[in-house]
Amino acid sequence: MKREASGSRWVVARPVVQFALIGLAAVLIVGLATATASRRIGQREAITDARTTTLVKAQGLVEPAITVGLPNADPAAVKAISDVVESGVIDGSLVRVKIWRADGRIVYSNEPRLIGATYKLGEDEIHGLQSGLIKAEVSDLAKPENRYERQFKKLLEVYLPIRVPDGSRLLFEAYYRYDAVSASGRRIWSSFAPVALGSLVVLELLQIPLAWSLARRLRQRQRERELLLRRALEASDVERRRIASDLHDGVVQDLAGVAFKLAAAARSGGDGAPSDPVIDEAAESLRSSITALRSTLVEIYPPDLADEGLTSALTNLVQDCSSDELAVTLEAQEGGRTLPGAVAALLYRAAREALRNVQRHAGATRATVRSGLSGGSAWVEVTDDGAGFDVAILDGRAAEGHMGLKGLDGVVGDAGGRVEVVSRPGTGTTVRVEVPVE
Global pTM? Predict the structure, then answer.
């Protein structure tokens, strides 16, 4: 009982665990998407902040301190700019300042070794100088003018034009640590994470009890269905057994008595008198009918199915179906295991239905019945060398009232099993039925 209860709990727990894992995967996906989106938003916000800061410092602090001597790197002009940059521009995130002329000469930098050096300005920088727009991009530290910034690994470069008192323009460049940009993304992510992920986790925790309850209800309905099916099969077996018993003890015995009386009446003329041919024929016909009726009783409910098992019942079925026109053999591989009565009865019914079709429709000379166990299922298979048929016609025949295999498919499906029919015209037919043992 403990093992059965444990198995039942696992049947309920398995879909719940799957539901929880899917929910966890959804949380991870949403968390990853939120982290990526937050990081990108944070980076854009940080870049926007850097652009604003650069604009304020360039036009509010540096531009007013520019004199006409700065474009020629006049020492006094450079000193005035240096005082402003060192006191109010450079901070923990802004690490480098460069001021360029349009011809590519650096007239000021807080790295003195760059002052007076000339490099080729890029197209974006020239366009920014001419258009008056402020631009931001990741700095290319491989360029020679950036060789003194390589120690910072990665920098955000923001540049815009500033004016000289004579009306000319210089290009102001500010270099920010990129880790400040990344930190902004992390800050936004840390703000969103508790709300985004926390709500998903709470939702998941609230849904798990509901999923457990639904799984238990579904399992209970499944158990009730299985119980109803089992009771229906048992009731069918009981009714079959009752009908077989009533026919055997009543009608068959009465007909046997009539057959004996007819035989006696046929010989009533004395030892030397010929028997009445009409009465003899009637007695013989009656005996044949009794034999057929007894075979029908065995088909309705084989007497050895419940006591001796499926193999014994199939052995008798194969013997009854064998004839001069049809050779039927049995290959049983049950390994000595006793099948539950409902499973054995269902497999026997399947074999009987398949052999009946072979006798009536296949035109076969040989048929083989196989049975065995595979994993947690018992199976029976009937193969013949007959004419075969197109399996697509089964639905049409069912609509015409010929239930046969389609009816068997419904009963087996209700038991959790399956029916497989493989056939083509001219190649024979194989009918395989599998039913779970538990």
Answer: 0.44
